[in-house]
Amino acid sequence: MQTGRRTRGAAAGLTAAEVAAARAAHGWNALPEPPAVSALAVLARQVTGLLVLMLVGAGLIALALGEHIDALAIGAVVVLNAALGFAQEWKAERAMLALRAMMAPQATVIRDGREQAIPARELVPGDLLLLAEGDRVPADAEILAEAGLRLDESVLTGESVPVSKPPGETAFGGTTVTGGHAEARVTRIGAATEFGQVAELTGRVERGPTTLQRALGQLARQLGWIALAVAGLVAAMGAWRGLETLQVVMLGLSMAVAMVPEGLPAVVTVTLALGAGAMARRNALVRHLQAVETLGAASVICTDKTGTLTENAMTVRQVWTAAGSYTATGRGHDPTGHVETGGAKRRAGDDPLLAQLCEVALGCTHARLSRAGERWEALGDPTEVALIVLAHKAWAAAPDPDALMEELPFTSERKRMSVLVRGTPANRVLTKGAPELVLEHCSRIATAGGAVPLTPARAEEVRAVATALAEEGLRVIALAARDTDEDRIAETDLTLLGLAGLIDPPRAGVAEAIAAAQAAGIRTVMITGDHPATAQAIARSLGLPAETVVTGAEVAAMDDAALSATVAGPVAFARVSPGDKLRIIAALQARGETVGMTGDGVNDAPALRRADIGIAMGIRGTEVAKDAADLVLLDDNYATIVGAIAEGRRQFDNTRKFVRYLLASNAGEVVALLVNTAMRAPLIFLPTQILWMNLITDGVTAVALGLEPPEGAQMRDPPRPRATRILPLSSLPLILGFGLYTGLASLWIFERLLPQGEDLARTAAFTAMVVFEKASVFAFRSLRTPGWRLGYLGNPALLVAFAAMLALQVVAVYWAPLQVLLQTVPIGWAEWGLIAGLALPLLVVPELWKTLRRGR
Ligand code: ATP
């Protein structure tokens, strides 16, 4: 097997000039953009709905009967509705497009002799590409060197068993690296790649209908059927009363239009998309809109520790050996500190054991530390970087980059890494990893007097030291080595050199976020690959309840019942491998929990898929993990998950608010129309007026209601059960209450003014209904908190929508063109006074009621 290290000659990669020349010749590493959703398609969606077809039908009948004004009015409403729907959907579409752009994949290349991460789009043929486990291969590339490279080519071949590829063969764009790593030279990019699979590389945001959208769709359909039946009935009543055909059609149509909350689907789409945008601003990228919804119901967050709860900025603090201990000074990856023992500085040059430790630190690694001007730049796994920094502090000699012969890579399952390096007089096996696992392969231990057999008693002593270091919250890495004359690597008979203890401070804000989650009834469960004692120490420092720490091995030994009992308590999991995560999720889900699970590696993908909310790390995470996730954390921060949950809860609550609001508005119209028809009075609202209310004034107000900021209590309530209905039966009295009042009040105005003329009465009733609906919206801002507690200016968008829609209604009443379309006539101060007087209770009564209920 070849090495994954750079081969000489190729090491520098392309220069900036060569990249520019190749770019000019070959273009970008991208397929022609898949046609973005066109404006035309979005528009087409607006004009093909059942309602619109019904309207067009009615318009044609009106035209045939010579009622040009009616036909024109219906036409105008169709156009306005389409314009509004288009504007909203287009906005949603743009928001999703922006999200997609943020998910563009990256590639690691060597250019100008420097390893760097660039957008995969910028690759050119000739680029020196580094592939690592979890990467999506960004272009077709010839493998130059590899170590344990395994590729999943199922996107190309359908064959799901990973294949190995020796140097000389091609890694195809679009396939994924499931193991090992490689250095490769890009041969073909963009459309020129095999099968043009690069299209798969553009981050995708999938957007099947969410549960919410489906539930609302169902509601709309049910209402639609009821509406048709009622409309037919009302029309029949009208016909029996001897109305003209057009009037019968109009009556039926009014009824149908009044009953169905036409604005609802658009409002939900816009709210979800805006919600996804709001989450992205909080560093949480939503890959499925469904996640916005599910997040609000999350009851358990399973999170890894390193980098999510902690900074993943490791520094070696202590090194234990059987010959004595060392401490290291300095912070971060600036190697300006030093190594000391008993207060005296030590250098590798005059301390053979320290030199051997440094040999492993520098030789058994993929990390790199380089100086960029004043700053030190580190690339690679922070654990490895910390060890390299330690070696620099000990003034250790740099290893020969060409000495590497073979490697057994680190995986979360093996929890160790070994390399074979060429040397004189003998080759060397260098190993580092989790102490328990490295110890299993050691037969000797280095002491001041040379290597001696590792007796069970000595091994026990080493384990005790490892535990003691871990209890201080340190990550512990065992370092071991062996001389060999073979040229194949074998992790046996190693000599344990010592243990390094690395600190990794908790991230700022995480302790607060854990407390906030706890207050919201959301449990946080740490699942880490680290030592149980480290896990517990870090949990304690973060205020995370973890009375018991269960290891992966213990999980494996438990049956489902025992695991189920374990996950119910304050528990953390340590030394876990990705496979264990699946069982832990299943156990939690079986208890009815809604589980969010974080992950970053290839092997985490099944757990990410299985979890109710799969959460991938944006920085540390592999492309494979991101693909499997519902949510990607741009900052890898635990606190971001809690922020996203708060956002999810807000969305769900707001959706409930505007669904109730829209239905209450419709109920008012239906009550007015039904009672009106039963009373045999002239038609109280014309279909166009109802459309105006439902599609234009209500829709805009509802979107604004969807922007309502979170109520204080939202993160103090327990998570809602998954089955919580958006519209529980208990909300019916509220909807009917508002409907009865607004319906009967506008009917009363209509009846009262009827003697002064049908047009005046109808205009006043129509205007009254619009004003009532606008006034009621404030009651729906919260179902329990009065406005004075929420802050009257808390939702500026709602105030703007309120004012704008009232102004629009004034225009509808006094502006000639709209007067023609909506068949309105000017109304006077007396009518306005009547309307205002009847609207007042809608503002006052709900406030009083909520205030009184709070008092109780
Ligand atoms: P978490 O799941 O909290 O993020 P983790 O993912 O860092 O933890 P792993 O990466 O699986 O956990 O590491 C498990 C153990 O493997 C560590 O405790 C450490 O002892 C060892 N280890 C980690 N990184 C390396 C490495 N690069 N080389 C060798 N051993 C390592």
UniProtKB/TrEMBL annotation:
- Give membrane topology per the record: Multi-pass membrane protein
Instruction: List where in the cell it is found.
Output: Membrane
Q: Which Gene3D superfamilies match?
A: Calcium-transporting ATPase, cytoplasmic domain N, Calcium-transporting ATPase, cytoplasmic transduction domain A, Calcium-transporting ATPase, transmembrane domain, HAD superfamily/HAD-like
Where do transmembrane segments lie in this chain?
47-65, 71-87, 223-243, 263-280, 658-678, 684-705, 726-749, 761-780, 792-817, 829-849
According to the UniProt entry, the coiled-coil residues are none
- What keywords appear on the UniProt entry? ATP-binding, Membrane, Nucleotide-binding, Translocase, Transmembrane, Transmembrane helix
Cite the Pfam families for this sequence: Cation_ATPase, Cation_ATPase_C, Cation_ATPase_N, E1-E2_ATPase
Name the Gene Ontology molecular function terms of this record.
ATP binding; ATP hydrolysis activity; P-type ion transporter activity
Which segments constitute the Cation-transporting P-type ATPase N-terminal domain? 2-67
The UniProt entry's GO CC annotations, sorted and at most eight, read:
membrane
Q: What is this protein called?
A: Cation-transporting P-type ATPase
Which organism is the protein's source?
Roseicyclus persicicus
